[in-house]
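Risk register update: the risk of archive-format incompatibility is retired. Evidence:
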Amino acid sequence: MLTIGCHLSSAKGYRKMAEEAASINANTFQFFTRNPRGGKAKAIDPADIEAFAELSSQVGIRVFLAHAPYTLNPAASKPETREFALAVLADDLLRMENTPGQLYNMHPGCHVGQGSEAAVEKIADALNQVLRPDQTTTLLLETMAGKGTEVGRTFEELAAIIERVELAEKVGVCLDTCHVWDGGYDIVGNLDGVLEEFDRVIGLGRLHAVHLSDSKNPLGAHKDRHAPIGEGCIGFEALSAVTKHPALRDMPFFLETPHDALPEWGEEISSLRAAWEA
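Archived output:
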């Protein structure tokens, strides 16, 4: 069965997210661990965790993806910005152990003029400070579009970070279809080739999740503007092919499409499920 869901609000807790996911025939979901601009996280309610575990087993949710605030920058040149990122990452990973064995995704960061090589070193150092041998969570580095000074615009940059991490077995990658397309990887005309390159540079064993979105931009635009499935430059057929590819079909897929209401994501899930099962 296709494992697919969308981004949900965590404001009302884990059980509510599982309930909303099930209401649109999703069997996974993604959420921000705290306000996407950072700040204090909501206290975890043990009763909510227990209720979530019970409901998720009933509706077939086995995996979810927690997303770090997208403003974190462990590669920052300003000490206070980097220290904030380290504090949030450490706290998030500790909180994740309330739901063992799940996935935690982060944008690697921006080099802000220092150069990507310096940023790679700083990001790897940050991970070496926050990862713990006893954690059950897998931290995922997201493939980026290359907007501004983003790090992670190439598979090589992500590989360079991972190879410097001491607990590398705790680290994987989340492939974002909009980002890799905007970054210049042709998943429409040469999906096999892109995945072969990923395998050669990083290793498909590191790939744990896929962000599924269309793009408002042409190949290689480096702009990162998501579009609903089938309404952008990637197109429905190519995105459906991503979900059905032998190397990807058993991955969890998370819609990051710009909608405002659950039924809209439900329609995308229904269409992608039908194509996956055809």
